[in-house]
Structure formats: C-alpha cells, structure tokens
Amino acid sequence: MTNQIQRKIAIKDFYGKGKHIYEDQMGFDEQHKSEARSLVAREVFRYHVEKLGLNLGFYYPPTDTFYAIYNDARPVEVYTMPRDRRRSDFIGWQCECDPHDQDQLIATFDDITEVWDGLKIDGKDFEEVINHSYIVALN
Fold first, then answer.
1. CA distance linking residue 24 with residue 28, whole number of Å
2. Phi-psi bin for 66: left (phi > 0), alpha (psi -120 to 50), beta?
3. pLDDT digit string (tens) for 24-39?
4. At 102, is the secondary structure helix, strand, or coil?
5. Do residues 97 and 81 touch, judged by C-beta distance below 8 A?
6. How far are the Cα atoms of 17, 24, 38, 109, 134 from residue 97, in angstroms, in the given order?
7. What global pTM score does this model have?
8. Can you tell me the distance from the alpha carbon of 116 to that of 51, in angstroms, rounded to the nearest whole number?
9. Where does the chain have alpha helices with state H?
10. Is 137 in contact with 98 (CB distance < 8 Å)?
C-alpha cells in the first residue's frame, strides 16, 4: 500500500493535455516565500514587488484573464496582458506572460505600496486574488 497525496487540479491542461496547475501551485511559490522569508502573501509581495521593484504577472482563473502590475512606470500601472486564443487551445500558451506587454489598463497607483490595499479585481481584494492566481512572471 502506497501513501500518495492526491493533488487537486486548479487549472486543467494549462500548458497542454495533462499539464495541469495544482492548487498548491497557486499564489506565490515556495522559492518566492523563501526569498522573502515569509509564508504570508502580503509580506512576499512587499519584499519582491515593493522592496525589490519587480513586475508581477499572474493568471486569475475566475476571470480567465492574465494581469500585470507594471512597477517600472510612475504612476504604477495594472493592466491585462494580451492573449491570443488562436495561438493555442491551452491557456498557458495564449499569452507571452511578459509584464511589459500591455493590453487594457485597469488601474493606476501613485505608489506601489498602494496596490495591495487598493487593487480590486472582480470585486475581490488583491490578497484573495493573488492567493488564487497562478504567478506567470516576477521579474
């Protein structure tokens, strides 16, 4: 008898048939948490995005949309990333996942520290959104 943990699929066939994203892969990954020395999403965001100044790209399944927080601009811009559904049947290949690629601007903030408390997507607080998103870029 083997003791295997059953992982729950969060996004089916994201990068191809059978190449799923699992619930334990949503939000910031273990490397991001380790580098930030925290398991708390707010602290991980504060370290990588606010302190280091990185851009953040993520896919949020409830809206079926790729988003980017473009930290290089002032004011800070939040927008959807372009997606070409004709390119592939698989979500992960429909977007270049480069936070520099802009589609529709959805919000601006005078300072990056305003994003965590100020950004709402689909009526949800950013903490809930990022914890239920697949991070596609942090650079």
1. 10
2. beta
3. 999 999 999 999 999 9
4. coil
5. yes
6. 20, 20, 25, 22, 11
7. 0.93
8. 13
9. 30-36, 41-45, 115-118, 126-131
10. yes
